[in-house]
Amino acid sequence: MSREDGGSGSAAPVPGTPRASAGKGRIRPLDGLRGLAVAAVLAYHGGISWARGGFLGVDAFFVLSGYLITTLLLKERVRTGGIGLASFWARRARRLLPALLVMVLVVCLVSPHLIPPPDLAGLRGDALAALLYVANWRMIFRGTDYFAQTATPSLLQHTWSLGIEEQFYILWPLLMIGMMRVSRARGGRARAMLLLISVGGVGVSSALCLGLSTDPAALGRVYFGSDTRALALLIGCAVAVVLARSPRGRVRHPSLLAGAAVCGAVALAWSWSHLDGTEASLYPGGLLAGSLATAAVLTHVVTAPGSVAARILSLTPLVLLGRISYGVYLWHWPLFMWLSAERTGLAGIGLFGLRSAATVAVAALSFVLIELPVQRSPLRVMRRPLPALAASGLCLTLVAGVAISALPSGSQLGPSTASTPEGTATAPPEQNHRPGRLPHRPTDRHHQPGKAVSAVIMGDSIAWSLLHYLPPTPGVALHDITRQGCGLALGSPYRYFGSLHNVSRRCERWPSDLREAVDRHHPDVVVILFGRWETMDREYDGRWSHIGEKEFDAYLRAQLDRAVDTAAARGARVLLATEPYNHRGERPDGGLWPEDQPERVDHWNRMLRQVAARKGGSVELLDLARRLCPQGAFTWQVDGVRVRSDGVHLTAEGARWLEPWLTSQLKTAAR
Question: Which domain holds residue 47?
Fold first, then answer.
């Protein structure tokens, strides 16, 4: 999302374009519309309940960019008889690149100190994609779901829209020049062809949206695609061409246009407050309707600058926010990620207020100290197209090098990117987990011959991370039947960080896996470490339920009984490991996701105690929760050791720290 100076660049107006209501060619209502759009985006990312569709503010920016860029290019053609590509691209670079370079550099320098290492995986590639304006295609190739928060999103995920706009800045002027040369026409005929291309492009883009959206797995492709999101940009282009054809900015039937603008404003208010990003009607219906609504409002305020709508959008707070909207958009996402509820102690409206204030302050500084000085620089190198483009490329290269070198290497990122001790790559325990895809896992990695205690470890990705990093356990042979992303609860679908998933068929094999391990190894001890997946919202018996509800608790107890009975079938002692508190991430408003709520973890651990008491002496508790959370609350460090890598899984240091205690507990249980 970028911002164009409303009509700036020439004192000579294009026939049919609106006269600016402020100096230097600015159109105040358009700045106000920008302010509203970026406020909607902030409210959406802040988890404000009445801004469910605030993400559509980006589409309003697309429409504005299409309109303003086309208007500027048509002005230049009227004034000079052509379009100077190098000059245009150099102006775009001066306007957009400096603030982006600073933001990416700061994100890469600061984030390693504020974000858990596993959540930095991929940030190097994201930084390069952002600087090259191809972030949207990187999101597509990585299978990113904009509306699924399955882990901490990339700190540069928001640059996807900048990529789309920059690609538009490159291709649209070329298309305009090519069309004008092919047509060999001037005036109305050339503009008519441009209008035809714009409207036809909207149709093609909408058709692509409709066709691709039939596959639920391709919604990320639809949302991030340059071709599918071009419809908003092209609607803005069409508006610019139509207004350029109107003498002195006059339009026929102004009252009809005013009515359309009212309908558009109502449609924008409703869609920004109600439309959910996961609804099928969004593609292309919601995107198209929102873009047309923005176009109606835009057309009305630029052709009727004295109207009520134009006066409302010209209110000083909205105009000022619109003036710095590019910086607000650039900085809001990393600042929202850094200013977490855990770090600030705030949540809800208080947290949103702090985040928004910090964003506006940083954006204002960026505008005053970076954006304006570069645009107004008297240096000739900044004014001449080719030297300016060369300088931009050099700065981009330097920032990319510094940013990449500032980020930790793969070996420092923990389970997300680290290699096993044997040097074979592994998948992350939970981050980027896709239901149905489980990594290959070597079994019996810690097996030791002789009279060692034989212990089968059954569990989810927390147990996996423990075994993954556990050093040799003297006198204990461990047999690994952990499964990442799997629990005892099997109901589908379930909600994980607010997104729907189905249980993998491999997860359904835990009873047979446990039975086979017991029959094969005749263990002295079986450790059962679950709970992460049992605390999630899950559809059970035809309705959504969760731990703490009577019927679902009965189901979980039955699953626990089944696991304990299978584990003890050959006389093994069963250790039920309590679930530690987790803090994998925060909701947009700073609150905890349901699966991280301490009350649910406590309820699960009480259930474990009840099962152990009912089963008698062959079943005991392994109080991992007290070991990892000695103060009765989540913590990253214990005894000066960072024990959790991402708020859920164990670090290598944490596993080494746990080893003596775990070995002792297993040996004691086997006696």
Answer: 23-405
